[in-house]
Amino acid sequence: MSSSRPSAYTALQAASSLLLYQTVLDTDVGDAFLELLQTLHEADYDPQANQLACLQAYGRWFHELATHQQSWPEHLQAQICIADNPFSREAQRHPLDALPDSLVQAARHDLALLQQLAEYDSAKLSAWVQTIAQMPEPPLVWRSPAAPLSPWPTQTNWADDLPALVALYQQKGIGLFAKYHTVHWYGEFVGIGTPDPVCLEQLVGYDDQKAQLQQNTEFLLQGLPTLNVLLYGSRGSGKSSLVKALVNHYHPAGLRLIEVNKSELVSLPLIVNRLRDLPQKFIIFVDDLSFEESEDDYKTLKVVLEGNITARPPNVVVYATTNRRHLIREFFGDRPRPQDGDEIHRWDTVQEKLSFSDRFGLTLTFEPASQDTYLQIVHHLAHQAKLAIAPETLEQRALQWATRHNGRSGRSARQFIDFVQAEFATQAQ
């Protein structure tokens, strides 16, 4: 029997003994690791039959590590930092000394086992495969490129670093909201892996609106009373970009964005309840909000804005953008005339529609960009893009672009700069 059996079996035994952190191995990399260990263990009984199986299993594991650009210990630590289990759920809301002793002991137990598994790195497993497959040289060892340090800086004993791990859970959260700072609601939370990278420094103009929204967002992060906000104004003025930029800026402080389509507004009470007890701060973002006269989904949003018998949680706020000031489409025919027998009731309906936007505590108005503002944005974006173009030529072309395309707006300025960048890149080829 080969010398690999005790080591492989010991690793499989450790993986099977996890009490809380089983999900750490429930990944493509973890599955490949366990498959390789099982194959190595079985090869002790029939080396001839399992030579090729060991090579194939090692190849799969190498492939998964390369796909994630992580070493095996790095992968384990990354999964520990976002693990969603009974311990991490309690740890993100309570200090370590307030947690049940059985949970704490189970967490220490699992961290010790996972540290053992981390020692089964590529070099060790490659040597085992070489021995079993009787190869003159060991299979190539995966070495990950230089990677950023883990947010959980384990230097010695992982179990002893449990207080630091708890602090990380309390700051960053667990599960989906630890992995993603921008999430979409599709009947369930779905993380957005490549959110819009727009940053505050890229946004020019509307300084007063930006300052008010930024201050309101900081109130949210500080646990202070926060207002729901309606961002109203012309298309392309940067309303949505401002909200996304704020989340990109503040997500290290625990800010998260939940994007909800108008068609999903009926789920808002469920979403709010899901977020209520979490340590992060959440912006529920509804883009391009408006309602046709026959739609009544606004009533669900009104309940969330105003609150009902259940108080609005202090960690949730609603930011909505719209091109329509009163949000609900209204016709002159909707207004009651003196001869209408139901005049009182109809006025009640009209007032309900017209006052809906008033339920946002703060309304920020984004007026159409003036020519000076538009050119200011163009110059700012051109500077960021390092475009080597004379200012006079830039302004002339930018004004022509606005006339021929989508008018003067931040969006139009961005589209113009993108076009010029592509144009210059083509000319340089």
Question: How would you describe this protein?
Answer:
- The chain has a seven-stranded mixed β-sheet.
- Mean pLDDT is 84; it is low at 1-5, 327-335 and 343-354.
- The protein is built from 17 helices and seven strands.
- The protein has three domains: 4-146 and 153-172, no CATH class; 182-366, 3-Layer(aba) Sandwich (Rossmann fold); 371-428.
- Helix 15 crosses helix 16.
- It is 51% helix and 8% strand.
- It starts with a helix and ends with a helix.
- 33% of the residues are buried.
- It is globular, with a radius of gyration of 28 Å.
- By secondary structure, it is of the alpha/beta class.
**How do the SSEs run, as a string of H and E?**
HHHHHHHHHEEHEHEHEHEHEHHH
> What's the CATH architecture of the largest domain?
3-Layer(aba) Sandwich
Number of domains: 3
User: What would CATH call the homologous superfamily of the largest domain?
Assistant: P-loop containing nucleotide triphosphate hydrolases
**Do you know the CATH topology of the largest domain?**
Rossmann fold
Number of strands: 7
Mean pLDDT across all amino acids: 84
Identify the CATH class of the largest domain: Alpha Beta
Please bin the fraction of helical residues.
Answer: 40-55%
